[in-house]
Amino acid sequence: MIKCGECGYENMDGLDYCDGCGAKLAPAAGAPAESATAPAAESPAAPAAAEPQAAPEASEAPTGEIKPQAPPEHPEAAAEGAAPAPEAPAPEAPAPEAAAAEAPAAAVPQFKAKVQIIRGGRKGHEFPLEDGNNFIGRWDPETGAFPEVDLEQDDPEAKISRKHALIRIEGGKITVEDIGSLNGTYVNRQPRLQPGNPVELKSGDELIVGKTFLKLIVDPIS
Questions:
Q1: Which of 22, 39, 114, 175 is least buried, going by the fewest C-beta atoms within 10 A?
Q2: Which residues pair with 177 in a beta bridge?
Q3: The pLDDT of residue 9
Q4: pLDDT band at residue 201, thresholds of 50, 70 and 90?
């Protein structure tokens, strides 16, 4: 007999549910379990025997010996765990054109130049010339004319304009040009210079402005 665990009704053996309350009946003691009667599941095939692993080579076998390591070339990089910085490449030799461009320019000839009055006014008086522009004319504070070659005292008839001519020293060359004078500028008694057209001078050349004659003197610096 199987006693119902819910209502206590005794049921006949072999029943799965109680005739009194319909509850699921527990199997009687000593009854074979369903798992026992169930056919045994086929056991999976035994896995193939694992292939034996090759023994590690002698060189890979750990040993108790600790080999000393060579000190790193860059201690700072080793301390930080970074690889040493690569060496900087050697600078390339400059191309011939670049070397020629870097070569210093040829030295400009050095000299001292001046003009001397050889006729009219203070004969023998000299005016030193500077690098750059040197104006020839007459001093006049009202118009702002302050020429380097001031012939105010040498031109009583006012034949020389306030801004008469320009002598320029540049790049080792000396030139003169008329800058719109009234009576003109002449070199070595040649035709009158056209305003704005410079003419190159050399030591000993003669300039005529108004009625005053000037001579260019160039002395090289040793």
A1: 39
A2: 166
A3: 77
A4: very high
Residue that is written with structure tokens 């029943």 in the block:
15
- What tens digit of pLDDT does each residue of 127-158 get? 999 999 999 999 988 878 899 999 999 999 99
Q: How many CB atoms lie within 10 A of CB 19?
A: 13
Residues in the chain: 222
Alpha helices per DSSP H over the chain: 34-37, 75-80, 96-102
Angstrom CA distances, 121 to 99, 136, 153, 182, 211, stand at 55, 15, 7, 19, 9
Residue 214's nearest CA partner among 148, 170, 157, 131 is 148
Lookup result for tokens 């210093």: 104
CA quadruple 142, 148, 152, 157: dihedral, nearest 10? -100
Q: Which helix or strand (DSSP H or E) is residue 199 part of? A: strand 199-201
Strand partners, 140: 145
Q: How is the beta sheet containing 163-170 ordered, strand by strand?
A: 149-150, 132-137, 163-170, 173-178, 199-201
Task: Quote the pTM value.
Answer: 0.52
